[in-house]
TrEMBL record:
Residues 90-158 form the Tc1-like transposase DDE domain. This is DDE superfamily endonuclease domain-containing protein. Keywords: Endonuclease, Hydrolase, Nuclease. GO terms for molecular function: endonuclease activity; nucleic acid binding. It comes from the Eukaryota.
Length: 207
């Protein structure tokens, strides 16, 4: 089969090569937990989501410069079948833990990762009168803070930071450049995020 014939067939079925979306690998249990969470909270108003302090960890990774392409149609852009799983990629990591909020005296949002609910952390929450609210495990699409990491990916080159201290300083600098308008917009996107999770039946979304 000639290259011309292949190109003609691809065009006939609207197929082309696109850079793969990078999303975490989700099990059926992860999907079900996110779907149930979204359904349970779908009718909550925006004001409700403004009462949380959202937390997340950022791991600086070198995979951002390793674009992989997949063959798909334009309408399959957000089809999980064509995502690239984060855990299958080589990376260089540095951890940054931060939070965003609109108000004070808030509920602290955490995902259900075991490290957040160790005996030490439970004692810390109790001693400091911190009210917790659990999000599903492996649900970055439900956490508005997750999108605050995007500026970091474009502004930081891990390979140029020879130590973790240097990398952490770069992360802090990039975080300080994120405007309050962006943070408010992300927090107010929670109802839309829930709708997308339900639409995707608990799978990864465009958020």
């Amino acid at each position: 089969m000639s290259l011309t014939t292949v190109s003609r067939l691809l065009a006939k079925f609207s197929l082309s090569f696109y850079v793969a979306k990078i999303k975490p690998k989700l099990t059926e249990k992860h999907k079900l937990e996110s779907l149930n969470f979204a359904r349970m909270n779908l009718k909550q108003p925006i004001e409700y989501w403004r009462t949380f302090q959202y937390t997340d960890e950022y791991r600086s990774k070198c995979y951002a410069n390793r674009a992989s392409r997949v063959l798909r149609t334009p309408k399959d852009e957000w089809n999980p079948k064509y995502f690239l799983e984060v855990q299958n990629m080589d990376c260089f990591r540095a951890l940054c833990y931060t939070s965003i909020t609109q108000q004070h005296n808030l509920k602290l949002q955490q995902d259900n990762a075991p490290t957040h609910f160790s005996k030490y952390m439970k004692n810390f929450y109790t001693a400091n009168n911190i009210e917790l609210y659990r999000f599903p495990v492996m649900s970055p699409d439900l956490n508005p803070l997750f999108h605050c990491w995007n500026p970091l990916k474009s502004n930081i080159s891990p390979e140029e930071c020879t130590t973790y201290d240097l990398l952490n300083e770069e992360v802090k600098r990039a975080l300080e450049q994120i405007s309050l308008d962006i943070i408010n917009h992300l927090i107010d996107s929670m109802p839309k995020r829930l709708e997308e999770v339900i639409k995707q039946k608990g799978d990864a979304t465009k958020h």
